[in-house]
Design a protein that fits this description.
Layout lengths: L62 E6 L14 H10 L4 E3 L5 E3 L2 E6 L5 E6 L13 H14 L6 H4 L2 E8 L2 E6 L16 H4 L21 E6 L3 E6 L12 E6 L3 H10 L4 E5 L4 H5 L4 E7 L2 E7 L16 H9 L3 H7 L5 E3 L24 H10 L20 E7 L3 H15 L4 E7 L1 H10 L4 E7 L4 H5 L18 H11 L4 H18 L2 E14 L3 E2 L17 H5 L1 E2 L2
Parallel strand pairs: 1-10, 1-11, 15-16, 15-17
Antiparallel strand pairs: 2-3, 4-5, 5-7, 6-7, 8-9, 9-10, 11-18, 12-18, 13-17, 13-18, 14-18, 19-20
Amino acid sequence: MKKSSKKFIMVVVILMLTVALVGCGGGEQSTAEPPVEQATAKPGEEQSTAEPVGEQDPAELVSFTVGSSTAFDTLNPLTSYMQVTYEFFMLIYDSLVIYDENYEAVPNLATEWSHSDDNLTWTFKLQEGVKWHDGEPFTSADVKFTYDLMMDTGLGYMYSSYLTGITEVQTPDDLTVVIVTEEPKANILMNTTPILPEHIWAGIAAEELEIFPNEMPVGTGPFKFDSQGPNFVKVVKNPDYFGTKPFVDEYIFVDYENVDSMAQSLILGEIDGANNLNSAQMKQLEADPNVDVISGEELGFMQVGINCWTDEASGGDPLLLDKNIRQAIELGINKQRIVDIAYTGQGTVGTTMINPGNFYHYEPTAAELRDYDVEAAKALLEASGYTDTDGDGVRESADGTPLEFDLITIGDNLEEVKSGQLIASDLAEVGIKINNINMDSGALYDNIISGTYDMFIWGWGADLDPTVIMGVLTTDQIGGNNEPFFSNARYDELFLMQQTELDPQKRQEMVFEMQQIVYDEAPYIIMIYSNNIQAIRSDRWTGYQQIPETGTFFHNLTIYNYMNIKPVK
C-alpha cells in the first residue's frame, strides 16, 4: 500500500498502515476541534453521513483523536490504496486471522484452522454468534462472497496477493469455511482480507463496485463507523463485539493540511496522537514532557521511480530505457546526504525492496552495490556513449539528445521536495540535468497511471509477507501498481514460484533473486527506509507500545494499540 504521506495502490496497501484522533485524556470529554483552516464542521455535526451510534452520555466518553497529514482516499475497501484507510478498515472489518503485537497470526473471525496433508485444502472454523454492525448474522457465506468477489473482479488491490492461487471457497455449514488452492499457499495465514457483508455488497451492480462510496461501512469489527466530515472520520466502540472490548469509546481521525499545525495541536492538547510528523518537529516535541514522540521504523521505503515503459504510448524519455543510465543515476546520488539533510537522520540508506531485519531482505554484495560514486557514474555513462560534446555540463546521446529528465515530487511533502533538490544537485556533477517539478499526489498518480513522466519520488508501505511488495513490479500490474511499467519474465516466474514454496529457505532464495533483478535493472532506486515520526500525549494515555520494539505506535499492521490504549488514571 502506498505510504500515507504518499499514495498507494495495492499494496498496499499495505499499509500503513494514519489517521487522526481528537480527544481528551483521562476519560474526560474532548473539547478539541479540528483547526478552523481545515474544517467547516466539527466532528459529529450535521455533515455526518450516518446517525450517531449509541446513547452514552458524552461526558463519560473516552475519546481519542489522532491527527494525520493524509486524508482518507475512499471508504471502499475494494478500491482503496492508502495506508491510512487500510488501518481504518482493520477497525471496522474483521479478517479470518489477525496479527498480534508479536506479528504472530492469531484467531479473529476464525477460531481454529487445519490443513490437508498436501497443504491444498484449509479448513477454518468460525466464531459463533457474530453479528454485523446492522444486526444481521455473520456466516461463512460472507467469507465466500468476499473472496469470490475480489477474485472475480480483480478489485481489492491491497489484498489481492492473499487470494492468488485460491481455486474454490466452500461453505459446508454456517461456521465452516474450506479454502482449496491450486498449489500450496505460503501466505495463507497472513491473509488479512476484510470480510464484507454479502447482504449489502451483493446488491451492488458489478459496474458500480469501483465507484461505490460505501458511505456507511458495516463490518463486524471492534468499532462502528459513526460519521464523516470534510477533514475527519469518527468511529465508536461496537458494544456487541465478539472479542475483547477496547478501552476507548471513540476514535476521531483528523486530516491536517499543515503538519506544523498538527504538532501545535498536539502540544496544546487539542489532539491526543499524531502520525506522519516531519523530522523538523522532533526536537520540539521531545522537549515537551507531556508528549511521547518516536521515530519508529516502518515497513516500506521511499524510492525514485523511473519510467521503463517500452510501449510507444509512453510519455517518458526513451533514454531512460537504458539500464546504464538508470544505474548511473543511482551511483550519482548521495543517499546518506539525503537521509541526513532531507530527513534529518530519521531513516537509513535504502538498497532493495524489502526492509533490513526482514527474513527476506537481500543486501547487495560488494560487487553489486551501487554506493555513491561520482567517478564510477561518469565512467559508466562515458563507456555507454554519453558525453558532453558542447561543454554545457550536460551529457548527450549519440544523436545529440541531452540527458535531461523531469523529476516529480509531491509539493506538500517537504522531505521529498528537498530530496529532489539534492538529487538534482548530485546528478549535475555527473552530467545529468534534473528539472524538479512539484504537484499534488492526485496529479502525480494520474501521470504515473498514464505513463507520462520521466522520474518521480514516492513511497510504498509494505507487509511482513514479501508477496505484497514484490507483487508491485509484476508485468500484470502494469497500469496499476507497477508504476515504472517494469517487465521481466524471470521476475514474474519467481513471483509465482515463491507463493507456493513452503520451505522458508527455498522461498528466501527466490525472493532474494527477485530483489537482485530489480536492483540490477533499477526501475526503482530505493532511496531510504524512512521512519515514521509519531507522538501520543503520554500525560493522558497509557497501555500503548511500539510494534515491533523499534517500530511505530500506528501503521504497524496491527490494531493492538487501538485496543489497548487507555486513559491515565
